[in-house]
Amino acid sequence: MSVVAIVGRPNVGKSTLFNRLLGERKALVEDFPGVTRDRNYALVTRHAKPFTLIDTGGFEPASEDRMLVQMREQSQLAIEEADLVLFVLDGRAGLTPADEEVAALLRQSTKPVLYVVNKVDGPQQEQAAAEFYGLGIESFVAISAEHGQGINDLVNQICAQLPPAPRETAAADQVRLAVIGRPNVGKSSLVNRLLGAERVVANPEAGTTRDSIDSPFRYNGKDFLLIDTAGIRRKGRVSQKLEKYSVLQALKAMDRAHVVLLLIDAAEGITEQDLTVAGYAYERGRALVLVVNKWDAVAKDHRTLNQFTQQVRDQFKFLPFAPVLFVSALTGQRVAKIMETVEQVANEFNRKVSTAELNRVLQAAEAAHQPPIFQGKRVKLFYMTQTAVRPPSFVIFVNRQEGLHFSYRRYLANKIREPFGFLGCPIRIEYRDRVR
């Protein structure tokens, strides 16, 4: 999936533009407590083109002496990861030396750049915006992110410059597995364990070319593709805020994956970035396995495993369905359990349940706990059917879907999981009013 980065000085309206582009998309809203979302990233779709939008947050120098250094590092970081850069300028403040510094940096890049002059609210600002041609650019897009002016033109130009989505060439029955993790969490060691011990897990066919990104292998007679995110790292020697950009590599891997292995450092514990990445996997409908690595480095007694498991469940409240594994990639402890679990989760992710089975469960759930009363009448559940797999998706037809409280929707989701499991899989349930 393409990445579009918004860069520019502080207070030029980057976040306002981010919210404007995000707010107009039509997407499923998950009313599920505990999903940790970093608003610097968003999945946006325009003109049938999905892309990841990033708000870089502005240049925040640690001191006056480091101002240009910090600006350069953050800009280079965004440019490196992006397929398209939106360079936002302040139409009210006019052209500044800092703008010229960033523009010079962008000219050294091979990435396409759209110059966006924000806060252009009227004819006077439109005339004043002409000074930005002093940057040596051929054109710019004048907008008012606050009032929505010029946004349609900007969206059209964004979509025109985005590269076409790559065609999927993998086999239909191949399971794509992404290994995600923070720097130094032991991800590379785990990848080596999964792919290097060929007599145990990995069994590449003759002639298969393996590189640092995609590694096809066979396990238990089935084809898998390991999507390695070895590029996740902290770039440069700047503030820890820049580590959030490593999430981009995880997002790119998740866009192609069916199952995500999220590695957690047992010694360091669960971090905000772990929750952020897991939240994106959930939102994208990916199956997920939580892998606590470096378990050999933890001092343990008879209570340690249960205590850490409870900690994981408390932190990842939005993933009660995700299995939790405790391994050591360094020693190989319990690593074999990973592929056993992945195979099981992949089967659940692709599971199709008959309409008859679903409606038996729905009727039993309704009999055990009746739907709520809405505007003087009880909500009725008519029938249910599965509409898709990867992730398992369902539609329940009702008479007044707006009358179903979130708590009852959660109840129905739990009732569906009881007989069918769907281990490691998020499930999507859409409620529709039945049309007579």
UniProtKB/TrEMBL annotation:
Keyword Nucleotide-binding on entry: yes
Protein name in the entry: GTPase Der
Gene: der
Assembly with partners or alone: Associates with the 50S ribosomal subunit.
Organism: Desulfuromonas thiophila
Protein's job: GTPase that plays an essential role in the late steps of ribosome biogenesis.
Residues that, per the record, bind GTP 1: 8-15, 55-59, 118-121
Family: Belongs to the TRAFAC class TrmE-Era-EngA-EngB-Septin-like GTPase superfamily. EngA (Der) GTPase family.
Chain residues that bind GTP 2: 181-188, 228-232, 293-296
